[in-house]
Amino acid sequence: xxxxxxxxxxxxxxxxxxxxxxxxxxxxxxxxxxxxxxxxxxxxxxxxxxxxxxxxxxxxxxxxxxxxxxxxxxxxxxxxxxxxxxxxxxxxxxxxxxxxxxxxxxxxxxxxxxxxxxxxxxxxxxxxxxxxxxxxxxxxxxxxxxxxxxxxxxxxxxxxxxxxxxxxxxxxxxxxxxxxxxxxxxxxxxxxxxxxxxxxxxxxxxxxxxxxxxxxxxxxxxxxxxxxxxxxxxxxxxxxxxxxxxxxxx
Length: 250
Hints:
Blueprint (H helix, E strand, L loop, with lengths): L4 E7 L2 E7 L8 H16 L5 E6 L4 E3 L4 H5 L4 H20 L4 E5 L2 E3 L1 H8 L2 E5 L4 E2 L13 H8 L1 H9 L7 H7 L4 E3 L2 H15 L4 H11 L6 H15 L3 H8 L3
Parallel strand pairs: 2-3, 3-5, 4-6, 5-7, 6-8, 7-9
Antiparallel strand pairs: 1-2
Helix pairs in contact: 1-3, 3-4, 3-10, 4-5, 5-6
């Protein structure tokens, strides 16, 4: 079994950040922290003009947070820290001065949908169905909600948040504005992502930086907002309802 990793590869001024975990690319706290640092470093690297964010493996883009860590939360502070992991990743992507292109090759759940939504331009395969499953265990997509709502609107976000049992197909996500293009195969996706990223590198980096600032206007309070949302989730995960639900997953 492959070991978890976060890696950055730079080629033709494109910085490709790849994350991997054998448990369907779910992300424990240490990987989330490393991903935050890698995104920040890539944003400050003068050899990089555009960033591509992807995951390893063929099937799942990201299954969200680590369920093993979720089950082991014992108090509100641990809960807040746990849910702050994805908050910190989203904020790092928001603050990164370079465009981040999402490459979504397969299903994505919970926090993974938040990461996809926080990219500046997201491309996927037809296998990249999305689901917000948090309500199933007695919590909600509070931390990732602002990023998802910003991308697809409150109506669509609330639909998938309430319908927590269903995967919504990639074509639905494209219609709602999460994905810009949907491809039949991973190979076709990779070709398109490579061509698109390398073409972006021909543009004025200062213009792209200013455009990103404009696109993210109105999110300046997210450092505080997402941490408040993490606190809410941290409380809910300790509720009797959620504790009973989680027992069934042990």
